[in-house]
Amino acid sequence: MNKLICASVLSAVALHPLAAVAAEGTTPDAYVAWFNANQAAKPQFVDGDTITFDKADMIRPFIPAEYQGEMIYEGMSVHIKDAGDITPPQSYKDATAKFQPQVTLESDGAIKNYVAGLPFDPAKFQAGSAEDGMRLAWNFNFRWQNQGLQNQEVHWVWVRKGGSHDGHEVMNDRYKAFYKGGGTFERVLTGPYQRVYLSHRVDLPDSNYRVAGSWADNTEFREYTGFTSPFDIAGTAFLILRYDDPRKTDDSWAYIPSLRRVRRISVEVKSDSLLGTDHTLEDFYCFAGRPLEWNWKYLGTAKTLAVARSKNAHTIYGGPSGWVPVEDDWALRTVDVVQATPKRDNHPYSTKFMHFDRDSGECYYANAYDRGNKLWKVWQLSKVFTDDPWYVGQKDFKAGDTPPGTRMSAFQSINVIDMQNSRGTLVPCRGSAYPNNRPEDVKRIMDVNYLTEGRR
């Protein structure tokens, strides 16, 4: 795909000059200094407490400094509730015990002898280690995901700081309960999403932990992202094929309705803005890139407050700009923190920090910096547990069936704020499931030819 087509498909966002006061002087070194100063902080709150604005200093050591200006405001209410046991199911733990002793890293960081389960024991990681940073990246890549995530309806909400969204068309009876607080909605994109894993599947020990059939050979996963509205992008769809060979570049395609053609996507395009949002294809889940395309450094562990087990089926937004989760439970979690630096010179990020839950492997926060090492984007991600009744009961959005006992710390929303442009993109996922997929459905949907149908 040439650069002209890339621009029309993905609407790449140029680096903006610093505008937000909160971003001035905020650098990677400032983040590391904050992390080091608060790494061993002891909470002054207990389970069941509600932290209001007058007590906000109690939670500052447990919220990344770059996000505090959004989460801490007059009228805030942060309810502290332990998330309980959110570890993966026994089948994943058994595969970890069986195969982890044989897993190693090649000299270039590629994973070797991995079959299924968690590749490496994070309890053995050493702060400051590049090798352990790479090991943590592989742990995140192969965290427990059952067969993969399916969302019937994903909103991509462009929200500008200030103003009100009360008059926006999305504020109808179906959605108005989810979008509270301030912020001006500029645009809402809608569409389905699905990722299906074809290898390293703990549910398939009899077929060497992978889906049988030549169409699934040498493939880690296939991923479909579609858009059904608004009208000017309806039918646009993306398909990514991630190979099991860690050194092999993804195959990626986009269908552009205006051209009525499927086009390949280059590595560079996957780090561009996705259809004008503040996300890129590489930012899915916090990080969806290929580990070998980045350098990694393990910083150590910390305690972080996060929506690790939401009490709601869907994220409810509020706050002055309408981009903070509200009316929810915040749990103090042990996280492994890593710094990732792209190897590609023309990547828009200079570096990125990510917080991964020690038990579930899921990401709660991330910060990315521009090529001048100034803070650019801040992500907050909310999770909901698949075995809780409010997750299972998402039939209002036609969710698929998540098998009982899946024990998935499920993707509920990923919310990013462009600190330089005072704009955010909220991505709540509704009709969410981690279903057992029928092979014939996967073969039909996760195919390049299917992109031209413009629907899932």
Please characterize this protein's 3D structure.
With 456 residues, this protein is of the alpha+beta class. It has a single domain (3-16, 84-453), classed as outer membrane lipoprotein receptor (LolB), chain A (Clam). 13% of the residues lie in helices and 30% in strands. The strands form 3 sheets. It has a 15-stranded mixed beta sheet that branches. Strands 3-4 form a two-stranded antiparallel ribbon. Strand 3 and strand 4 (111-112) form a beta hairpin. The longest helix is centred in the N-terminal third of the chain and has 12 residues, at 130-141.
Quick synopsis:
The chain is an alpha+beta fold and 456 residues long. The protein has helices at residues 3-10, 28-38, 65-71, 90-99, 130-141, 389-392, 439-445, and strands at residues 50-52, 77-80, 104-105, 111-112, 150-160, 184-197, 219-226, 237-243, 251-256, 261-264, 294-306, 317-318, 324-325, 329-342, 351-357, 363-369, 375-385, 409-418, 423-433. It is 13% helix and 30% strand.
How would the blueprint of this fold be written?
Blueprint: H1 3-10, H2 28-38, E1 50-52, H3 65-71, E2 77-80, H4 90-99, E3 104-105, E4 111-112, H5 130-141, E5 150-160, E6 184-197, E7 219-226, E8 237-243, E9 251-256, E10 261-264, E11 294-306, E12 317-318, E13 324-325, E14 329-342, E15 351-357, E16 363-369, E17 375-385, H6 389-392, E18 409-418, E19 423-433, H7 439-445
Parallel strand pairs: 2-14
Antiparallel strand pairs: 1-2, 3-4, 5-6, 5-19, 6-7, 7-8, 8-9, 9-10, 11-14, 12-13, 14-15, 15-16, 16-17, 17-18, 18-19
